[in-house]
Amino acid sequence: MQSVGVMLCVALLSFSLFNFVGDPINNMVGEETSTEERAELRETLGLNDPIHIQFGRFVVNAAQFNFGKSYQLRRPVSELIAERMPATLELVIASSILALGFGVFLGVYTGINRTGVLSNIILFVSLAGVSLPTFVIGILFIYIFAVILGVLPSFGRGEVVQIGFWSTGLLTASGLKALILPSLTLSLFQMTYIIRLVRAEIMEILQTDYIKFARARGISNRSIYFGHALRNSLIPVVTIAGINIGTLVAFSIITETVFQWPGMGFLFIQAVKFVDIPIMSAYLVFIALVFVAINFIVDILYFLIDPRLRTKSENRDG
Amino acid sequence: MADRSAGLIHRIRDSDIFHSFIHSPTALISSCLLVVILLTSFLCEFVAPHDPFTPASLSLMDAFTPPFWAEDGSMVFLFGTDGQGRDLLSAILYGTRISLIVGFSAILFSVIFGVSLGLTAGYFGGRYETVIMRLADVQLTIPSILMALLVDGVVRGIISRELHDEVAIYVLIFAIGISEWPQFARVARGATLVEKNKDYISAARIIGLPNRLIMFKHILPNILRPILVIGTIGLALAILAESTLSFLGVGVPPTTPSLGTLIRLGNDFLFSGEWWISFFPSFFLVILAFSINLLGDWMRDTLNPKIN
Amino acid sequence: MDFLEITNLNISYPTRRLLVAAVQDVSFSVRKGEILGLVGESGSGKSTIGRAILGLLDEPGKIEGGTIQLENHDLADPATEISSFRGKRIGLIFQDPQTSLNPVMTIGEQLIETIQTHLQLDANEARKRAVALLDDVGIINADARFNDYPHQFSGGMRQRVVIALALCADPDILIADEPTTALDVSIQSQILALLQKLKADRNLAVILITHDMAVISEVADRVVVLKDGRIVEMGAPAAVLGTPSQTYTKSLVSSVPPTDRRIDRFPIMGAEQNHAADHNLKILNRWQLQKNTGASLVRVEALSKSFSSEGFMRIGTNEPVHAVRNVSFEIREGESFGLVGESGSGKSTIAKMIVRLIEPTSGAIFFEQDDITTLDGPALLAFRRKIQMVFQDPYSSLNGRMKIKNIIAEPILHHNARLERADIDHYVDDLLAAVDLPASSKERYPHEFSGGQRQRISIARALATQPKLLVCDEPTSALDVSIQAQILNLLKDLQEKLGLTILFISHDLPVVRQMCDRIAVLKDGAVCEIAAAEQLFASPEHSYSQHLLNSMPKFQP
């Protein structure tokens, strides 16, 4: 239910972009087009219809991924997006795996070993990670691994293999090599974030009565940490991780710019500079769609993790 | 009066927070660093060795001077110069000021906006709360950097290009500020819900105090701690967001560059060996963000008794 | 030699200001098949001892000296592998069954995990044993409920599960830390009976840690009285509590509200006893005393309140919860009217409606002659002035960011905007004096005061508007028994001198007996019985009232 609301809100937002930011006709045609031609175009595009009908049409079109033509590139937006989506998704998925895997593991480790030397080092480094803007990390990586060491490529996706409409870089050596730096760059910020979150969660849970009670009845540390504490910490972690993977998509804009990765973020940033509204609104709708999908998965995970959502509690039985 | 201020000083010196502060090396180091950065950047007219933004004082002869320890370096330009012969150190000091102003204003904007909405939503509840919090949820869907980009894009669409450069900073403050408010609204609402159910609020209502007084005199002071903590971390994020946008070329225009703008300008020379032009601004940016985060981290640990 | 022997135990908590000696030179022992009661007020170190036995002291607590001898092991010796005793030889249960169980594991998983930690049993055998244990502790239909999660059990049932978990490996000693404090009286009596049964059936040594003298006097075979980390007295309950030899024990015993009769005031040992009778009541000069006619001050008619779980677009049926159903009673001028009930009986909800913190779903409340549910504007403000409230939790009822003088001056200012600054200062002084706090308190902040002192501040704030009706919602249930006696005395004195009418809400029957003239017994939001206090305790009419009085632990020294 909420997802539908979110999608409608975002649709409204991107619809307003279309209609109120500049004159769509001006954006579509050249300077030399006559007033009559403009009026005709206006009529055929339905821009004279009442606003709610226009919005309805926009939603229907958006549902079919029809956002018209890019003002700047003069090609259908859906085509442009479809071309570039695989690059972005591969980047984002690789980074999510890195961020979640390392984030949860190191978070649990630092949460358990609160005072250890290694924990403090991890924490210090993670704080540095939160302070390093993505683009600085990218530049740093490029300088070290591409300029000085020359072991990894500094831009592009390497060789790609076309599978149907999907072009993948995961099947060639150069494609994989090209993925290393951008995905690492993109994941670092979220990884540090997840480390700190998981750590705080674990530390809080280790203070609870049920952990103390488990200790008091002699349950082993390993079972307390991984059986009891981790399982309970998953609920908030899943929430935040969900939101953060959504932001990975957005932050891929920066990574793609730094590494000239031919994905959607790169497309979008060009669109912002040239006020290319169709691309901007299509991208917005795409992001919302990703969010809704993640939200859906998060809800399912909640259901699996938290029995309180699955089974009704029975009140007072005396 | 003297008596009262003496009492206050004693209270502060006796407090656990003060004690934890002077015994925490991270808190001390980071706040010292911050004070130095704040002073030098806000007094940059007096501190900076050069005036980097008066074209007359620049000489192309000085362009691409490396830092002082390199072979061609000179003590005149400690950190070297950029392609137009501007002294990097001076440019960085000026740029830090811009970054700080934008970051501070943006976070102030989102704190005021977010906390008022979150506080009132938590206090009044009902439909009003639902609408506000759903709105925050929807906006959280759109990651902050994207939101800022969109706002910037919209403004570009509305006003002309020349005008845009003039208002760019305000647009940037608004764009970053508006993208961060849901965080503050959520925290403020959560904390308000907790406080609202405490008995001192019931007592205030039974006395007959108006809602306005209850919210701002009783609840607000009690929810400031978590807001202060996320506000500090938010400040670092806002500064990073500003530099990111400037790096992407949609932030502060190059005429009055911020740290992000400087990095972008320097990035073009990375491959030709003039590494220092992007390195030093990056380094300053990271130090700035890092010390704010260190301070925020310490505050989180000290002010939040739950995680200790 | 006794089974567990503690000798000269010393435990301290180093803090930055000072070294807190939590336990000093404590020696006692426990035999198999007896319940040893450790009793004391907060800060007495009773829980600390319980945790120290299992090596589970909270940071930075540390055993400084002494021995804890179990057979030939010294548990206080850091060299002892203490974790091998946890659960296996010694079981420990905590106060709150709501938080003691892992919410995301079924009770079966938790039981089997614990059993397999200690005993070499395969999954089937472990399950059999677990079900048998659940049967033992009185879980009905144990086999069917094996795969239920903790939240599916009520508080009392959860505490039984907790006990089953502590008994998984047949320990010799069970340490129960306030095991019934979070439970209603009727469930408390069941759990206490269970502990006694387990003690007998399994020849268990039980260390029962509690603040509740009545509980100790009912179930303990021997009792140890603790104060500030030291043992004051120990021995058989009849001797220690009946004819105490130490002043502290005497004062403690005399602070316990008797269940069998009503006393005028609690006798209080020590300095305060004598001057307490004549409070410095300068506030009387400001008070407009009226003769209490015994006429009706509050009339509650057919009051109901139901809560529906809020939020739209929620899936599933949400039946509204009927917190209060069709309740009617009246409170007469000058009397103390008691509302008694277990948790969920709706007593606090009724109080909140009377002070208009929440609106009733239906019904009416008349104060003097006005229906207060319809008041607004100046009429509402005038009503608010006449009715004030004292709350349960002394830690949340004062705004921690305000000085005491501002907390007390706030209602004065709000209702008498024209008073002069100096006059308000005097008034605040008088109010503090009336609740026996020094005038110097006003420049300080709430965190500098103890729970009992905060409750006094709370009372001073409530008196600031010179109310006619004082609503006291469990005003002493968070306090130690000796502090409770002082606060109850204070309330009685103030009522007498100022002609207050009091609505007293409590779950604690002995306290209600001491405080109230007439009592309404509530169950599940409805009134069972309204009777004069003495009549109710002598011959309760309603079956639920009888049940409550029967389950109430009786302090019989």
What is the overall pLDDT average of chain C? 90
Total discrete domains of chain A: 2
CATH architectural designation of the largest domain in chain A: Orthogonal Bundle
Major beta-sheet overview of chain A: 2 strands, antiparallel
Question: What portion of residues of chain A belong to β-strands?
Answer: under 5%
Number of helices of chain C: 19
Helix/strand-derived category of chain A reads mainly alpha
Q: Classify the fold: give the CATH topology of the largest domain in chain A.
A: MetI-like fold
How would a textbook summarize the main sheet of chain C?
6 strands, mixed
Radius of gyration of chain A: 24 Å
Biggest sheet of chain C: strands side by side, in what order? Answer: 6-7-8-3-9-10
Structural class of chain C: alpha/beta
**Based on CA inertia axes, which overall geometry of chain A fits?**
globular
How are the secondary structure elements laid out?
The complex is a heterotrimer of chains A (318), B (308) and C (557).
Chain A: H1 2-20, H2 24-28, H3 35-44, H4 51-63, H5 77-112, H6 117-131, H7 134-148, E1 161-163, E2 166-168, H8 173-206, H9 209-216, H10 221-259, H11 264-273, H12 277-305, H13 307-310
Antiparallel strand pairs in A: 1-2
Chain B: H1 2-14, H2 16-22, H3 25-42, H4 44-47, H5 88-124, H6 126-141, H7 144-158, H8 161-196, H9 199-207, H10 211-248, H11 259-267, H12 276-303
Helix pairs in contact in B: 3-5, 3-12, 5-6, 5-8, 5-10, 5-11, 5-12, 6-8, 7-8, 8-10, 9-10, 10-11, 10-12, 11-12
Chain C: E1 4-14, E2 19-30, E3 35-40, H1 46-53, E4 62-70, E5 73-74, E6 90-93, H2 97-100, H3 107-118, H4 123-136, H5 155-166, E7 173-177, H6 185-202, E8 205-210, H7 213-219, E9 222-227, E10 230-235, H8 237-242, H9 247-255, H10 272-275, E11 296-307, E12 321-332, E13 336-340, H11 347-354, E14 362-367, E15 370-371, H12 377-386, E16 387-390, H13 404-415, H14 421-434, H15 451-463, E17 469-473, H16 481-498, E18 501-506, H17 509-515, E19 518-523, E20 526-532, H18 533-538, H19 543-551
Parallel strand pairs in C: 3-8, 3-9, 6-7, 7-8, 13-18, 13-19, 16-17, 17-18
Antiparallel strand pairs in C: 1-2, 1-4, 4-5, 9-10, 11-12, 11-14, 14-15, 19-20
